[in-house]
Amino acid sequence: MSTAPARKPDPGPPAHVAIIMDGNGRWAKARGLPRIAGHQRGSEAVRRVVEGAQDLGIGYLTLYAFSSENWKRPPSEVEDLMGLLRVYLRRELAALHRNGVRVRFIGERHGLADDIVSLIDEAENRTADNAGLTLIIALNYGSHNEIVRAARAIARDAAAGRLRPDEIDETRFAGYLQTIDIPDPDILIRTSGEQRLSNFLLWQSAYTELVFMDTLWPDFNKQNLAEAIDEFHGRERRYGATSG
Ligand code: IPE
Ligand code: IPE
Ligand code: MG
Fold first, then answer.
1. Whole domain around residue 188: which residue ranges?
2. pLDDT digits (tens, 9 = 90+) for 167-217
3. Number of structural domains the chain divides into
4. How far apart (Å, rounded) are the C-alpha atoms in residues 174 and 212?
5. From atom 12 of ligand 1, which residue's Cα is the shortest distance away?
6. Residue among 10, 24, 55, 70 flagged as catalytic
7. Is 199 a residue of the active site?
8. What is the rounded distance in angstroms from the CA atom of residue 30 to the CA atom of residue 46?
9. CATH of the domain at 114
């Protein structure tokens, strides 16, 4: 009989990791650089973390890229952020596709520039049949908007006689959200030390483990992602039940 100590079974990677990528501005400010420099370095962190997520065997990675409230920023910063998104999609799409990544977007398309909407469509269509990591980019996304739009679509279906009000349950409701077919996040990471959700995945994160990290997003790497996952594995998820 083996005398080796019993090892805990490898819990495996979480199915879905969501990240609020925060701290680009503070990263730049600490270096006396313009905010755009922080966003540029932030987009390099995106590349690293997408690769890291693939290496770690994560199924779904959702990245909060631009919130429905981020339009309140100065127009020049909004334009810089949209410009970086254009560059990211143009440069990375081929590599993402080659690596079997399926790209999806959540958020309101209305309000985005036409060429960005075309890039989104192209990314989604080209990668639709890929079976590797699903990368979900939350762009012009806000949970309140998503939930209100779902309510509107449900009301429309009910008014048209396609749905009876008493048929609307949690599963049905979730089917009207943009995250249809995507499992709820197991873990939600926010970088930069801020501890709030900022209108991100409010419905979907009802039982998500929240991990707040001080690292500023431009410094974030695969090691930080692995640390967050370790922290997650140390948590006990009870879903309202008792321990054990
Ligand atoms: C995150 O960094 C990027 C976006 C919100 C688009 P910030 O730009 O919010 O950086 P801080 O919070 O000002 O440091
Ligand atoms: C949340 O970060 C949005 C994104 C990371 C895209 P913000 O920096 O906009 O959030 P607040 O304003 O600090 O809540
Ligand atoms: Mg911020």
1. 16-142+183-233
2. 999 999 999 999 999 999 999 999 999 999 999 999 999 999 999 999 999
3. 1
4. 26
5. 23
6. 70
7. no
8. 20
9. 3.40.1180.10
